[in-house]
Design brief:
Elements (H helix, E strand, L loop, with lengths): L18 E7 L4 E6 L8 H7 L2 E3 L7 E4 H13 L5 H12 L6 H27 L7 H5 L2 H4 L12 E8 L4 E2 L23 H5 L42 H6 L3 E3 L1 E7 L4 E7 L7 H14 L3 E5 L2 H10 L3 H7 E6 L1
Parallel strand pairs: 1-4, 5-10, 10-11
Antiparallel strand pairs: 1-2, 3-4, 5-8, 6-7, 8-9
Length: about 325
């Protein structure tokens, strides 16, 4: 994907909008061509997309990348998130037998961002046409076995059953660790899988208010027994494992892992980032809050520390809803 000197830049003819001398990049080939647009085309990228390519700039593209190449990278990146755009550009350079240049990353990245935006807008239109655009449509329909009801079907002991847990294998260093300056990222997830940080942080003081002010905030499960919380024999013996140094270690990561909820058929329902911490109470509380809102009462939640979490849940602001809505938190 080399760039060209100014004299070789493709020109846009004002009368016929023809693209001349533009570089077309595919997985196994690269070539310079001149393209003639359809009479209805108003912009260069309309002509390029008609031929299966996407330009690296909106009005005067010098390089265009094939849709097949962008689609192949998307699937490779989904399979291996560590496979970066830089690695993809280097691979293309090897295939095309040309030297790698850093500016190729920017060209590929610009085209790839537009490609993802096109896919997103197409998905939105498809969901609207299929009447799948309601806020909780995916949660209510992602697992037919769990959430579809048949006529004359007998009532189950639990209308819905999910499992949830955290994992700290997906970490991202905070910028301050490398003496860098953090750049604000105003982008928001457009997926309904994720609970954002503001939603999760609504529950950050739920346990701290129930415990002694000097208590370790990571020992969120150790709360005082109340009349509203169920009694479990194993709770008093449980303590948050791990030395103090390990608990403080999470502060060096901007994201220290993810916390997810899945149905018993292994469909992912919800997820949230664990931010600069281990597995705190606010993450399962935020998950349970959304589950109760969407699925309603008579549900069950399996959690590896379910006995202790049941006390935390009962003492939180979700306690009244759990008493009348959620049957139990099951320890597994």
């Amino acid at each position: 994907m080399p760039s060209f000197p100014p004299s070789d830049e493709p020109t846009l003819d004002g009368d016929c909008l023809s693209l001349k001398n533009i570089e077309l990049v595919d997985i196994f080939s690269r070539k310079r061509v001149s393209l003639q647009p359809h009479p209805s085309h108003q912009y260069p990228n309309e002509t390029l997309i008609h031929h299966g390519y996407l330009g690296c700039s909106p009005l005067f593209p010098t390089v265009a990348i094939s849709i097949c190449t962008l689609a192949a990278y998307r699937q490779a990146h989904r399979t291996c998130p560590r496979f970066s755009i830089q690695a993809q550009c280097k691979a293309l350079c090897h295939l095309h037998n040309i030297p790698y240049r850093p500016y190729l990353n920017a060209q590929f990245s610009d085209a790839y961002d537009i490609y993802l935006e096109i896919l997103h807008r197409v998905d939105v239109l498809i969901n609207q046409a299929l009447n799948r655009s309601s806020p909780n449509w995916r949660l209510l329909n992602c697992c037919p076995c769990c959430f579809y009801k048949l006529e004359d079907e007998e009532n189950l002991a639990l209308d819905w059953l999910v499992t949830m847990d955290g994992n700290n294998s997906l970490k991202r260093w905070t910028s301050s660790t490398a003496d860098g300056t953090a750049r604000k990222d105003s982008r928001r997830f457009r997926s309904d899988y994720w609970l954002d940080r503001s939603t999760v942080d609504r529950f950050k003081d739920e346990v701290r208010g129930q415990t002694h002010p000097t208590a370790d905030i990571d020992n969120w499960q150790d709360v005082e027994q109340t009349d509203t919380a169920p009694s479990f024999t194993c709770v008093d013996r449980w303590r948050n494992a791990g030395p103090e140094q390990r608990k403080r270690m999470f502060s060096v990561f901007d994201e220290s892992g993810i916390f997810i909820a899945a149905c018993r058929h292994r469909f992912i329902l919800l997820a949230c980032d664990m931010v600069k911490s281990g597995e705190l109470a606010k993450y399962p509380l935020a998950i349970v809050d959304r589950l109760l809102t969407v699925y309603g009462k008579n549900g069950g939640c399996a959690y590896d520390i379910g006995c202790a979490f049941a006390k935390t849940l009962g003492n939180s602001t979700l306690g009244p809803r759990v008493t009348t809505g959620m049957s139990r938190a099951i320890s597994v």
